[in-house]
Amino acid sequence: DQQVKQNSPSLSVQEGRISILNCDYTNSMFDYFLWYKKYPAEGPTFLISISSIKDKNEDGRFTVFLNKSAKHLSLHIVPSQPGDSAVYFCAASAHGSARQLTFGSGTQLTVLP
Amino acid sequence: EPEVTQTPSHQVTQMGQEVILRCVPISNHLYFYWYRQILGQKVEFLVSFYNNEISEKSEIFDDQFSVERPDGSNFTLKIRSTKLEDSAMYFCASMFRSDETQYFGPGTRLLVL
Asked: Are A98 and B48 inside 8 Å of each other by CB?
């Protein structure tokens, strides 16, 4: 079951530069998308979300873009900081369901000082 | 800031034993979830709970699993007869209302020997 895909298992970025993490989905019923950050042996920490009625949502250094026609979303972090180094998960839920989340496989972001 | 808590943080058990994983969701939240992550794999949905009953469950959530909200604060996951393949991180999550964000606990690492 690959309804949510993160095709890049890892990404390295220099401190101060932009990090772009990508996510693709296949289920047309998904209408709410979230990004979580996760450290080893901890639970996912919510970062930012976007509803399908929008194409962009910003919160400080984090911006999520949604391209519904391409079934693609991306998370931009700018400027990247060493403390941003973690695994980032994309997740999606569908209206009419119990809002259970379907997760991608994650991207390990490393921000180099 | 309110947070989801989980106990124990680690649990080691013998195959065939019963385990109960405990969660205290955020106090005004109405929707409750269990997810698990087997080492090296995606975070997977197990079950959702709303209005004192299961609202959705995955194929993983078979007769060996049960959930309960025994009082106004706790939310538990019971595995009746553990198998080796139940070894995973188990995450509890809660949400205030539908169309909002799920907040995760720190997880319980379950090891079945």
From this structure: yes
